[in-house]
Design a protein that fits this description.
about 10% strand, two-stranded antiparallel sheet, single chain, alpha/beta, elongated, Rossmann fold, 15 helices, five-stranded parallel sheet
Length: about 325
C-alpha cells in the first residue's frame, strides 16, 4: 500500500508525464491545494535545472484544470488545452529580457493584475529567474507581493546561487527545490532524449550533479565532447613547444566562442579536478574521466581549481574572454 500511495503522489504535468523528484515540494503544495489554502505568492528556489519552472507550470495547470486530481492536471479540458497552446488568458509569464527582468515588465504585470481574471477562478503568474530582476523592478513588485489583488497567485522561481532581495523572500512562501538523484536524472534524460544510450544518460546525469536541465544542456551543446577533448589536450605529453602553443591557442579560441556556455565548461573541468583530487586521497571518483599526468599532485589540482576561480572572476568583470581562456589553459597545463 505504501508503494502504491507514493506512486499516486507523483505530479502529472499537463503533457501527461510524471514529474520525478522534489517530494517535499509535492507534499507541501498537494496539501495546500487539497485544503484550498494556496498562498498568494510562492518562491520556488533551488539549483539550476531541477524542475522549478516545469513544476510551476504543472501547478498553474492544476489550479484551473476542470478535472484535476490533486496536483495532476488532466491535459484535456479547455483550460489545460489553452495552457498547452500558450493562449490561456489567465496564465501570465514574465521572463528575463536580454538577461534581466526590467521595471517596465513589472509595471505591465501590475497593470494586468488590476483586472479580474478573464475566465478562470484564479489567475496564475509565473516570474522566471527572479535573481535576474533589477533592484528597481524588485522594489516595484514589493507591494503587489504583500497585498496581491484577489484571485491571483504569483509563483516566482530563482536559482539558489542567485541573489534575491530579502524583502521579496519575506513576502513569499518558500518552497525549496533540491538536486535529483542519479537515477531520477538519468530517467528524465532518457524520457526527453529517446536516442540516448543508457550509459550516456548515466554519464550526463553524473556530470549534471542532480540537475537534469544542466545535463541536457551539456548534451545538446555537445559540451561533454568538448570537455573530453580539452582534458585530453591538458594531459597529453609535452612535445614540440611550437605545436603545443598552437593547440592551446586554438583551444582557447574555441572556448571563448562558447560565450554563455563557457561557465558550464568550467564546471565540467572542476568536476574532473575534483575527481582527480578524490583519487589522490584514495577515494572513489564520481566519473570515469581520471586522465591525468603522473607528475601532478594534489597541490597541482588545488592550484588549477584556483586558476578556474580566478578566470570566473575575470569573466564577471567582462575581461577579454579569449585572453582569459588563454591564461587559464596555460595554468591548467602546468
Amino acid at each position: 500500500m505504501g508503494a502504491k500511495s507514493q506512486e499516486t503522489e507523483k505530479v502529472l504535468l499537463i503533457g501527461g508525464k510524471p514529474f520525478l523528484g522534489q517530494q517535499r515540494a509535492r507534499n507541501l503544495l498537494s496539501m495546500s491545494l487539497a485544503n484550498g489554502r494556496l498562498a498568494h505568492a510562492y518562491l520556488f528556489r533551488g539549483p539550476e535545472g531541477v524542475g522549478k519552472q516545469l513544476f510551476a507550470r504543472g501547478l498553474a495547470a492544476a489550479v484551473n484544470c476542470h478535472a484535476a486530481r490533486g496536483l495532476s492536471a488532466c491535459g484535456l479540458c479547455s483550460s489545460c488545452k489553452k495552457l498547452i497552446s500558450g493562449s490561456h488568458p489567465d496564465f501570465l509569464l514574465v521572463s528575463p529580457e536580454k538577461g534581466a527582468i526590467k521595471i517596465s515588465q513589472v509595471r505591465d504585470l501590475i497593470k494586468a493584475l488590476s483586472y479580474s481574471p478573464y475566465e478562470a477562478k484564479s489567475r496564475v503568474v509565473l516570474i522566471e529567474d527572479l535573481h535576474t530582476m533589477r533592484r528597481e523592478a524588485a522594489n516595484s513588485l514589493l507591494k503587489t507581493l504583500e497585498e496581491p489583488p484577489e484571485n491571483n497567485i504569483l509563483i516566482l522561481t530563482a536559482d539558489s546561487a542567485g541573489h534575491v532581495l530579502q524583502t521579496i523572500t519575506s513576502r513569499c512562501q518558500l518552497i525549496p527545490f533540491y538536486g535529483l538523484t542519479l537515477e531520477e536524472t538519468s530517467t528524465i534524460l532518457l524520457q526527453q532524449e529517446g536516442t540516448l544510450e543508457p550509459e550516456t544518460a548515466l554519464l550526463l546525469a553524473r556530470l549534471g550533479e542532480g540537475s537534469p536541465g544542466k545535463a541536457m544542456r551539456f548534451h545538446r551543446k555537445n559540451l561533454v565532447k568538448f570537455w573530453e577533448d580539452l582534458i585530453s589536450l591538458l594531459v597529453s605529453p609535452v612535445e614540440r613547444q611550437e605545436k603545443e602553443l598552437g593547440e592551446l591557442l586554438l583551444m582557447a579560441e574555441s572556448m571563448a566562442a562558447l560565450k554563455e556556455d563557457l561557465p558550464h565548461l568550467f564546471s565540467l573541468v572542476k568536476l574532473w579536478l575534483r575527481d582527480c583530487l578524490l583519487d589522490c586521497f584514495g577515494q572513489q571518483a564520481g566519473t570515469d574521466m581520471l586522465k591525468t599526468r603522473k607528475e601532478w599532485s594534489s597541490e597541482h589540482f588545488f592550484a588549477k581549481l584556483d586558476a578556474i576561480a580566478q578566470a570566473e572572476k575575470e569573466l564577471d568583470r567582462n575581461c577579454n574572454r579569449t585572453l582569459v581562456c588563454e591564461v587559464l589553459l596555460f595554468r591548467l597545463r602546468e
